[in-house]
């Protein structure tokens, strides 16, 4: 909160809250990076799922916060919703060398769009896919061998 209050970037109370929330997310990521090798994903506010430009701006701000703490962007995945706008944001970010992890992904068509956008990682909602198969096949559950 002090980080947001002291910022000249955030003027309105809403902007200060958004900045504080991004900072909290980055702080969690910084702690995870201390114990986990490899990547950490940090999500852009899901309310921006239909705003490509603002998603890009917020993603770049998140990356800047990590870099200010000595973490190279090569360890960070920016998590975005797999909407049309989210994919446009991912394309822009990937061109800037910022890797993306796409979420809210429910279909093969979305997965193909992610591949075409060149994103680093997808996070499909496997539970929803399993729900579809249960309904389609009239099953309550599956054995682990299935």
Describe this protein's structure:
- This protein has 146 residues and is α/β, with parallel strands linked by helices.
- It is built from six helices and four strands, in the order ααβαβαβαβα.
- α4 links the parallel β2 and β3 (99-105).
- α2 packs across α3 (52-68) and α3 (52-68) packs across α4 (84-95).
- The protein is elongated, with a radius of gyration of 17 Å.
**How can the largest sheet be summarized?**
4 strands, parallel
Distance between the termini: 48 Å
Q: Give the amount of beta strand, in percent.
A: 5-15%
Mean pLDDT: 91
H/E topology pattern: HHEHEHEHEH
User: Count the helices. How many?
Assistant: 6
**How are the strands of the biggest sheet laid out side by side?**
1-2-3-4
Supply the helix-strand structural class. Answer: alpha/beta
- Global morphology: elongated
Helix content: 40-55%
Tell me the number of strands.
Answer: 4
- Low-pLDDT stretches: none
C-alpha Rg, in Å? 17 Å
Offer a concise description of the structure.
The protein is of the alpha/beta class and 146 residues long. The protein is 54% helix and 14% strand.
SSE layout:
Blueprint: H1 2-6, H2 13-35, E1 40-43, H3 52-68, E2 76-81, H4 84-95, E3 99-105, H5 108-117, E4 121-124, H6 126-137
Parallel strand pairs: 1-2, 2-3, 3-4
Features:
4 strands, 146 residues, 4-stranded parallel sheet, alpha/beta
